[in-house]
Specification:
Elements (H helix, E strand, L loop, with lengths): L11 E4 L3 E4 L7 H10 L4 E6 L3 H4 L2 H11 L3 E5 L8 H14 L4 E5 L1 H15 L5 H5 L11 E5 L11 E3 L10 E3 L7 E4 L9 H20 L5 H23 L4 H21 L3 H12 L5 H16 L4 H7 L14 H14 L16 H10 L3 H6 L7 H11 L1
Parallel strand pairs: 2-9, 3-4, 3-5, 5-6, 6-9
Antiparallel strand pairs: 1-2, 7-8
Pfam family, one: ADH_Fe_C
Keywords: Oxidoreductase
Protein name: Iron-containing alcohol dehydrogenase
């Protein structure tokens, strides 16, 4: 296995539109990043993070030291929750503005980094609110610099131009996509992720798997997305069981983190479609639902719908999870059943009813899939017509 020849302690620079430091010990690159910020004339930053993982992971000690040594002042907003809300973003923006911050340092998984991207935009648009942003009421062309210190291996948000912020009273969970929110620098250090418990390890890894399955099969699908999908799924299939069994296995974390990174690049290029478009209403309705878990429950039903249109690609990329697929349209049920079997093996629940959804929720979920700002674009990228009947069928099959 070629991975054994990779020195996981050698910190590599991965250049997309973001410069990402990947490897065990990459957090120590924060000193170089702080120096780069001072070189840009940045004297104050807002740290956007969750309630505790930024401290428990050890990331904050290193970040704080680097900022102190380089003379960068900071204010910390540590109230971001899973599925961050517009209210949280507005609150963080107010604190940042009052302090005079001109950069954002986001520490955490997808939620703090996504929220940090929202803060970065609104710091550049002082007359706008997070709700204005999430309902696309103004044109976004600029943001203050974002630094992402990643604490999970799933979202890919540390290397892409996307962010997700919820408007709770409308149960909207739109997708923001702007070139100005690519992080300037990101840190992907597997040593910061060894405290992730087995279930969360699966949820974030299944998020990465969904990213590439969708990216490889959208109308914008391309050879890069397919190649990255094959690599991502192969890595996750081999290393996720290892990380679940031994959360402290640094090599397993490293390779899952790399898989997540390239999955982020894949959907930054190929975009997403049905699974994410339908999961956002789930966690819009029930914000406590882990994003990756919702995706995992929906995925088999989505693949069943799209398999006849993309049989060859899906057979190729799903081979590590569902062996024996030949790439013929009549294999949709086989792909569906094989995925459900694999997902169960890695701790993903099989039915939406296990998360409290009922048949009475279907109408509202379908409505949200079509009414939430931006989700229409995702639906339009599906390789089959994403009609209301198709969306309803996926939800019903996932119950």
């Amino acid at each position: 296995m070629w991975e054994r020849e990779i020195d996981i302690h050698q910190v590599a620079e991965v250049r997309t539109k973001t410069t990402t430091y990947l490897g065990a010990g990459a957090i120590n690159k924060m000193s170089d990043i702080a120096a780069a910020l001072t070189g840009r004339g940045i004297k104050k930053a807002v740290v956007v993070t969750g309630k505790g993982s930024y401290i428990k992971s050890g990331a904050w000690d290193v970040v704080k030291k680097a900022l102190d040594e380089k003379g960068i002042g900071y204010v910390v907003y540590n109230k971001i929750t899973p599925n961050p809300t517009a209210d949280q973003v507005d609150e963080a923006v107010k604190i940042a503005r009052d302090f005079g911050a001109t950069a954002v340092i986001a520490i955490g998984g997808g939620s703090p980094i996504d929220a940090g991207k929202g803060v970065a935009i609104l710091l550049a648009y002082p007359d706008q609110t997070a709700r204005d942003l999430c309902e696309f009421k103004f044109s976004v062309e600029k943001a203050v610099p974002v630094i992402a210190v990643n604490l999970t291996h799933g979202t890919g948000t540390e290397v892409d131009r996307f962010a997700v912020i919820t408007i709770p009273e409308k149960e909207f969970k739109p997708v923001l996509a702007f070139d100005c929110i690519y992080p300037l620098y990101s840190i992907d250090d597997p040593a910061l992720m060894t405290l992730l418990p087995p279930d969360q390890t699966s949820y974030v890894s299944v998020d990465a798997v969904n990213h590439v399955i969708e990216a490889a099969t959208t109308k914008a699908g391309n050879p890069l997305a397919v190649s990255l999908a094959k690599e991502t799924i192969d890595i996750v299939a081999r290393y996720l069981p290892q990380a679940r069994k031994d959360p402290g296995d640094l090599a397993a974390r490293y390779h899952l983190l790399y898989a997540s990174l390239i999955a982020g690049v894949a959907f930054d290029n190929g975009l997403l479609h049905l699974t994410h478009a339908l999961e956002h209403p789930l966690s819009g309705l029930k914000p406590e639902l882990a994003h990756g878990l919702g995706l995992g429950i929906l995925l088999p039903a989505v693949v069943k719908q799209i398999y006849p249109a993309k049989a060859g690609i899906l057979a190729a990329i799903l081979a590590p999870l569902v062996p024996g697929l030949q790439g013929t349209p009549d294999e949709a049920a086989q792909a569906h059943d094989g995925l459900k079997k694999w997902l169960k093996q890695v701790g993903i629940k099989q039915h939406l009813t296990e998360e409290g959804f009922t048949a009475k929720d279907i109408d509202r979920l379908v409505e949200l899939a079509f009414d939430t700002p931006s989700l229409g674009l995702l639906l339009s990228m599906a390789p089959v017509e994403a009609s209301r009947d198709v969306v309803r069928t996926i939800y019903e099959d996932s119950l």
